[in-house]
Structure formats: C-alpha cells, structure tokens
C-alpha cells in the first residue's frame, strides 16, 4: 500500500493509493483549504466527502415553512455531520459544489449548500480524484449479506 504524507499552507493530508484524507488547519475557511489543496495537488475533478466542526458558517437552504430558499448564517460552533460534493477545474479555476448537513440544537438537522465556513476543530475530508472513485454496486434482492 502506497502512503504519502503531504503538507500545505492551509492543510495536512495523507495520500493512500489514489485517495486523499485532508485535514484543514484551524481558523482556515473550508473553501480556501480545499481549493488550495486541489490546486497544489493538480487534481482536475473529483468527489469530496467529510465532516468537522466549524464557525461562521454561511449556507443556502430550503425553508419548508416558507416554501423557498433562504440564506443562513450560523456563528457559533456548528457540528457538520456530513459534507458531500464534487469539484472540477475549468479555465484554471476550481469550482466547488458542497452540500452540508448540520447538527442543530434539540436533535434537529439542517441541510443545504455550503457557501463558507471556518474550521474550528476536528475535520477530515476524503477526496476521490476522477479515476479513483469508489465503485457502487447496484442493489440486488438476492445479494447475500452474510
């Protein structure tokens, strides 16, 4: 198994085979950290999955009571229980599309499109470059799970 340790200005990472596990430095924007990592590693497209703790989170989300999208800002510690997204490079610029699920008070969650957030604790992001994406098997009723 090929394992490499990598360091950048805003991040630390481990590369295992063709998959990266990225940890963004505390106080750095998730968008900035991921963008710098992707640019420095010269990854042209892929998928991102991760979780962490963030402050100053800005996102767009659908409000089912008002039946339209809203812009929300959350300034206290936010637990991001899941970030899923993808990215690609076009004309030398990285385009990130990240959907986030937040754990809120009283056991509720909020999901939407992440626009900005600053890392304030634990975080890990798995980056799967194009060509190394996990293979998803179609569901089969006859598949043996034992």
From TrEMBL:
InterPro entries found in the cross-reference section: PPC_dom (IPR005175)
Record domain PPC: where: 14-146
Gene3D superfamilies, per the entry: Hypothetical protein, similar to alpha- acetolactate decarboxylase, domain 2
Stored Pfam families: PCC
Name of the protein this chain belongs to: DNA-binding protein with PD1-like motif
Organism: Chryseobacterium daecheongense
């Amino acid at each position: 198994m090929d394992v490499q340790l990598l360091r950048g200005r805003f991040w630390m990472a481990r590369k295992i085979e063709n998959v990266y596990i990225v940890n963004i430095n505390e106080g750095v924007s998730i968008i900035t950290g991921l963008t710098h990592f992707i640019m420095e590693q010269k990854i042209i497209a892929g998928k991102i999955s991760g979780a962490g703790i963030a402050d100053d989170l800005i996102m767009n989300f659908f409000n089912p009571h008002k039946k339209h999208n809203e812009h929300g800002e959350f300034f206290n510690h936010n637990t991001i229980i899941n970030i899923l997204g993808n990215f690609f490079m076009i004309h030398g610029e990285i385009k990130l599309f990240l959907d986030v699920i937040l754990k809120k008070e009283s056991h509720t969650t909020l999901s939407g499109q992440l626009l900005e957030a600053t890392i304030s604790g634990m975080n890990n992001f798995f980056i799967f470059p194009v060509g190394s994406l996990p293979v998803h098997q179609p569901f089969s009723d006859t598949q043996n799970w034992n």
